Amino acid sequence: MAKKMTLDNLAGMIQRGFAETAKDFGNVKKDLTILSENNVREHEEIMLCLNDVAHRFELVELQK
Fold first, then answer.
1. Can you give the pLDDT at residue 54?
2. What's the angle, vertex CA 17, arms to CA 14 and CA 18, rounded to 5?
3. 39 is in which domain, residue-wise?
């Protein structure tokens, strides 16, 4: 015979579900922060490379 569901049991299940969801969102937020930091760092590296390319084109034009 199945166990009868009480309001207290249901409330406990919902509370645990919300706690797990909050924990999962914390992990997602941490992962997004890491991705954002990596993105900023890589963007800066790309911009440094592109700045050098622009200067090289200017030097080539000056040498002509």
1. 66
2. 90
3. 32-64
